[in-house]
Structures are given as structure tokens and as C-alpha cells.
Amino acid sequence: MSTDEDYVHVPSREHENMVNPPSGTFAVQMGISPRLYNNDLAPTTRAGRHWSGYSIFTLWANDVHSLGNYAFAIGLFSLGLTGGAILGALAFGALFLFLLLTLSGFMGEKTGVPFPVMSRISFGIHGAQIPAIIRGGVAIAWFGIQTYLASQVLQVVIIAIFPGFASLQHGSFLGLSAAGWITFLALWVIQVIIVSYGMEMIRHYEAYAGPIILATFVALATWVLVQSGFQIDWNPGKAVSGGDMWLKILGAASLWVSIYGTFVLNFCDFTRNAKSRKSIVKGNIWGIPVNMLFFGLIVVVLTGGSFKISGHLITSPADVVAAIPNTFLLVLASLALIALTIAVNLMANFVAPTYALNNLFPRHLNFRRAALISAVIGLILTPWNMYNSPVVINVFLGGLGALLGPLFGIIMVDYWLIKKTRINVPELYSDAPGSEYAYTRGFNPRAVIALIIAGIIALLFTFLPVFATVRDFSWFLAAGLGAVIYGLIADKRGPFHDVHGDEIAVSPQH
Prior knowledge:
Distance between the termini: 35 Å
InterPro entries: Pur-cyt_permease, Uracil/uridine/allantoin_perm
GO cellular component, one term: plasma membrane
Oligomer: single chain
Protein name: Nitrate reductase
Mean pLDDT: 88
Membrane topology: Multi-pass membrane protein
Subcellular location: Membrane
């Protein structure tokens, strides 16, 4: 428990909600550095937090039902898992995710800070750039790839309405046809406009998109059931059994958790706006175990029902949409899938690099400018070429992704077990020598060493064939290694002060 002596007194502001980034005079008065602080990196005020349990739920209502997740879950049938085994794997994964995401979410609710600032607790005020850039690098690449995949669906929609548009699919410039450029840029612009209005606009978009997505998948499942005569094949593949089955179930559950390896890191970017811990728990209960089992049932119905109809395994809900004979219904379903992809992109792949860039240049960037730069980088990378290159996907994104587990382990052990949630929020923005998170020239060498050792082993798990048997469990192994190594070498002497950030908090402006 903290005492009155633990709290640092700082002068009150003249205005409760600042509209502009802090001036040099303000920074000196508050004991913070303009190199570490601006309106978007500042803690959020309690009064300015509007994310309810429903807001958290709609994040998962959109993200869980992403096309990538459906492709993953449907692919489990080809590994020999039955519909019941897949539901079991998703249930195990959902329980792990509920625990991890709730612990991660509580960190954001207590401090009110985004992930790059949260990382300063473990890695230091400057060392925090390491996890922020790794997380942002993974996200910015996937932002472009997801936009590209959505543009492919948009082309199908436009051609269904205007068949002449198909003529623009011929030819290529930088690897993309004229039709490809038109649809990609259209979706790119839409996402930039939404995110430029900040986290509150993202909350509103997710809140409206969530029910639409759920209704769309219920409609698709119902259509498949009707077409199949309400018959479902729960075992459309070659089923495995015994110990091999349980190994595949646990491996699938572990992979399901690793898919969210990015989200468990920066969930505080969203929960810093949560009204209370109760909102996080309520949103996570409905959004993770309940919603994920509902997702699993949809997977079984779409896959097992489609197999009854055609005798072939589908690879994605898009296959079901493409089979809809009515053009009007096909267009509506395709537009819903596009809305879904945008929702997933905003939350999973746009917010993280925006805060990472903000953290790099807080005196020159705000949320809107950083979001635009993130989007431009995502365009310059020509993500369609990345997606079509397995080497780039596996080496670049696989390599960066392998480091997410160790980062999570280090940050969680430091926050929950070593510092026991005692966080000096104002000093997260102080570069004064001897400040609580200055460590050694702004870097915590113990956290960096733990990341290097655990990261190297994680990369070996990812790329060396000899570790193929444990690859499904690599995220847990890497996270555990990061946690254990840092737990052994971390400085546990303290003292660790529990100081709220109310005096430097800012209400969200959008």
C-alpha cells in the first residue's frame, strides 16, 4: 500500500484540459520533459475515459471475426481436428487470453498511459523505444497487407455492380493494376480519415461495426445451414485421435494465443480510456471466451455445412460469400467483410505504430500526424509485394513477431511481480538524472539483456527445423523465458513509489 509520503507534489495546471502540447515552461514546472510528453502520450484523466464494457466487447467482436482468424480456424480441420476438438482448442486459448489480456488491460486502466510510455517502466525512458518500434513495425506492415486484402474484396464488389471495371485489372504499376490502385487507395484514405479523429472515433467505428459483423456471420451461417438441409459434417477431414489429438488441440490453443501476441502487449492503448476495471472484465468476458466460442460455432457451421453441400473444404468465409447466387446479397456481404477488415486494421495495426511514432518525436508529432505517417509508410512498403513474398513474410514479420513473447514476459513480470503495480506516473516523463525510470542513460540494461537472450532463443524456435515439434508453443516458451530471465537479474531493491498522474493528465480531445 502506498502512503502520503509516496506521492510527489507537482503544481496544478491553470487549465484542466490542455489543447496544445505543453510549453517548455510548463514542462519545467511539472518536472517533465517535452522530449517525453505531449497530449497524446500524457495519462488520460478519469473524467475523460468513456470506454465501457460494451466498447471493449466490440473490439473483440470485430477482431476475433477477422478473415485471418477464420482462415486459421478453418485450417485446423485439415490438420485432423474435428469440430468438437476445434471448439476445445479455442476454449483453452480463450481462457489463456482472458487472463493475459485482463492483466495487461488493468495496467492501462491504473496508469492511463499508452504502450510506449508503459514500456518505460521496464526498459527506461529511452529504452522503451525498443518494444514500441518492434510492436509498431509488425503492425505497420500488417496494416498495409490487410488493406490490400480488403481491396481485393472491394474489386469483386465493384465488378459485380459495374462489370466493365474488370478491364482495369490488366497491366501493372509497382506490382498493382489500375483497379488494384483505385481500391487500395480508396480504403487507405477511409482508414486515414477515421484514425485522424483519434481514439474516440475508433471507439465509435468499432461500436457500430461490431453488431454488423456479428449479424453478417450469423446470416452466412444460416444461409449455409439452409443450403445444406441443416446438416453439418463435424469431421470433414481425416481425424486424429488419442495423444496426437490432444497435442494438436493444445498446439492450436497456443497458436491462437500467439495470434494475439501483439494485442496482449499494447492492450493498454485502449484500456487507458476504460471507465473502470469492471468495464475491462465485463468486456473481456463477453468478448473473449463467449465471443470466441460463438466464433468457433460459426467456423464449424460454415465449414461443415459447406462440405455437406460441395464436398470440398472452404478456406475462408469469402468462399461462402463468393457462392451467394444473388448479386445484391453478395455485395452486402462483401461490404460487411470490408468493414470488418477496416475495424481490425484500425485497432490491431494502426494504433500501435501511431503511438510508437508519437513516442519517437513527441515535440513534433501528435496522434493525427503520426497516423498519417504510419499510413504513408504502410503504402511505401508496397504491401501487396510483401504479401506475395513468403520470404519477406516469414523472415521479417516472423522475426519481429518472435520477439513479442519475450517483451510481454519482461513487462508483465516487472509490473506485477517486481514493482507490484507501484508506478510513479509523473516520472515516466522525466529525463532528470536519478529519476525513477532513468536507469542507465535512459536504458534499463537488465531488461535489454533479458530481451536479447530470450529473443535469440525465440528466433531459434521460429526458424530452426530442429525445434519444429515445439514451434506451436513458441510464444509461451519465449514469454516464459523473458519473464524468468528478467525475474532473475532485475533490480528488486526499490524503493518503488506509487504516484498517480492526475496533475499531468489530459482528457482525450477527439
